[in-house]
# Entry
Amino acid sequence: MSYLEYNVKAVPSGFAKFLHLNWPVILLLSAISSVGFLMLYSVAGGSLNPWAEPQMKRFAMGMVLMFMVAMVPTWFLRNVSGLAYGLSVLLLIMVEFFGSTGMGAQRWINLGFMRLQPSELTKITLIMFLAAYYDWLDVKKVSRPIWVIIPVIIVLFPVYLTLRQPDLGTALLLVFGGGGLMFLAGVHWAYFAAVIGAGVGMVSAVFKSRGTDWQLIKDYQFRRIDTFLDPSSDPLGAGYHITQSKIALGSGGWTGRGYMQGTQSRLNFLPEKHTDFIFTTLAEEFGFLGGISLLALYIGVIFFCVVSAISNKDRFASLLTLGIALTFFLFFAVNMSMVMGLAPVVGVPLPLVSYGGSAMLVLLLAFGLVQSAHVHRPR
Amino acid sequence: MRRTPKDIEQSARMISRRGLILGGGMLVFGGILGARMRHLQVDQADQFRLLAEENRINIRLLPPARGLVFDRKGVLIAGNEQNYRVVMIRDEVDDPEQVLQNLAKIIPLTNEDLDKAREELRKRSRLVPVTIADRLSWEDLSQVAVNAPALPGITPEFGLSRYYPQEGDFAHILGYVGPVSDYDLSKLVVVDPVLQIPKFQIGKSGVETKLEGALRGKAGTKRIEVNAAGRVMRELGRDESQKGVSVRLTIDAKLQNFAQARMIGESSAAVVIDVENGDLLAMASAPSFDPNKFVRGISVADYKDLTDNIYRPLANKTVQGQYPPGSTFKMVTALAALENGHVVPEETVYCGGATKVAGRRFHCWKRGGHGKMNLRNSLKQSCDLYYYDMAQRVGIDKISEMANILGLGVRDDLPMSAVAEGLTPTKQWKRENRAAEWVVGDSLNASIGQGFVLATPLQLAVMTARIATNRKVIPRLIRSVDDRDEPVHEPEPLGISTSSMRAIQDAMFAVGNEQRGTAYRSRIADETMRMSGKTGTSQVRNITAAERARGVFRNEDLPWERRDHALFVGFAPADKPKYAIAVVVEHGGGGSKAAAPIARDIMLAAQTDDLPPLSAYPASQRARIESAFEELQLRDFETAPKKGSQA
# Structure
């Protein structure tokens, strides 16, 4: 069923739309953001500045944005998704362009009132565009090679641009987000099996070639991988962060050391304590119960998104909702894995909690899309 | 596009199914995160809380001990010695300047030392210890320890520092270590954290730098608890550093020492190689220098002495020095002619002292000429005209090809610094590099190892080893790494006919053991140790026609740097070769006079593994040799510590 066939009368209009918002998701997002304010207040040593207050302002702005987007009919979103994708790729190219003419290696564009990271935006527009693509595509053609290659190109182009910045974390998120959406749209298992198989094969071939005559990559590249896999080989660099982060987490115990009592963050042992490593402060001060509660809030958001998507008969809307849920998941899963020493340190923030304007706004905008899909679902 | 209800139904089912699968996947991963959280926060909580509670944890790097280097028999040639020093950690001091002033009252510190320390403190991370004073006496170190309360952030440390017990003997082979410089760091792609340790020593040249990866080892860490003043309270745990692996060279320290001692006073190089497996037994380059001075930080005056010395002590002449090989190249020309069928050993060529080729006169070293010369006599008496003739018959390209087969013009793969390639010119080479066509005169010059031809002493030794065995002997310097023997390969045949090689070997025997042979004066009398060889004298300048007319080309009349280079290559025992040698004496005059006697002494030392016995020398020379040996300053290896007894 496409939007033209909606029973228009059944879709709420005007202020009635507010009643049909996905309120559980809004409440969960607010709760998560509040945890963020608390932690930013704590790491600043009990002060609203420099982090908590700006973060609150951005949250307010983001909520307004979310409500505005939620009011927009889904069919309109679908129609502008190509434009949105094109625009964000253009911005990525512009970053590249300005980067070479004096803005250094920066990843953002100054819009005057805020700095916009096009790569953040791309995470959402990519999902939108892919959802629109699969909405348009005949279901029977989904797994035909030619129709698989097109979305692959749609994904890899911005990936290439972000890798050039270089921003490995975003590139990975784009690949997983895009790949996940293709999986959801029903692309045949065999493609994923083949890509994963080829990936594993290639990686093992590269490792096997080490020290032989046909070595595939240079020695120094191998050594980089070594430091990557074994941070203890760099105990005062990457390994230092992880060790301190684990000490902070571990010292939290069941219930934590109490709000604003975390010694690790107090004493500046923790790096990036207000951005990528903010979870360690939470875990130190509120312990296992605090950490697992935040995790539960995140899982709750995912849960309500999945429920909303499954009950939505509009193809674009459900793909969009699931895609954004996946992206959100990837954010917190990668960040938590990183601070708990399960994954190498790549710069991925904890969504809605870490200090950062672009990420907050873009995420709330994305949930505006989820809301729109929920409000305007065919009934 | 309109879709059938069936399609829509199918699509919705697909999305629901996949959505649930993905949702389930996310839930599982969420579970994993929760489990990990529980593991860290609950199961390991006691351990971590202990670490964090009210104490501050610091992580310090433990530098690894550098791998040892031994000679082939296990004599230590590079070891580590205790070094006392004082370090400061910036993060633990409130007022570093005050602490430095306090420290200067206790131990001798110059203003230069203090400035260096301030500079380092500014540059390095606040957590990295910076060395304030190095190589302190035990008394000074105790003073620092006693005055600890006045010196927050200051820690006395024991470190290891490289030392070279054989001093100058291995300076060129091993190279030396020095503190990591910004330049070293800039060259690295991946910086080993251990390099941040202040004054950490890394290889700067020679084997020390080529085998840096093996010798360095891996840093360990220790976690220490410090109190509010930054003083270390106790150690919480440590990962021991991994010592660098030990390396065994193929060099025989005793022979090396003899060779170095024998060449004192000359600017020269000698290479001894085992012809059976390519093991380099000695690679002496004189004069040498004491690498320990570089490790400890050489003074400007000492360094200037080394760089100003016209004998170039810092250069490793064995592999870096490229010399015209002179008459030692004649074997190459002869083999090229024999193998390409342009001559048979018995054929004679008339030497009248000079010949005119392409309008130019080419002289034999013997102005009166040698008369009729066959291959054996031409090599034995080193007649130039014979080789001029051969060069015109075979052409330069075939000669060059033969030189490459014998190892000249080919860079040997050895872990030493700046190993030179030498030069075996071809017609094409001259066109490309000299922008001129090859002329026949060039071939004539090349045939006697002059003109463009260049070779290193190492290459000449390899050439001789190959001639002695007719096999492709490949030199090697590393005998074992980490007690694992490097593979030894049986050298392959060279592909030169046995009869040709026999003829050359026989002629080389004549050079060293028959009357009128150019090295007959330096013969070995002991029949079991006789040496075959070839002398060479290579001009470093052209003798002008005017000088020739005046008769001024006696070397002794020239300034040192314009005299001829003296060369000798040889192998022994003549009947069953085991060792090959090449000796080059820079500006030494004639090969038979300056190089051959050195080669004979070293060759005897190699064969006897001791000071050469006087009985091996011709009776008439023994008295002179004995007094010369008495003046040699040799190291005592009988009481020297062997592997295992010193670390």
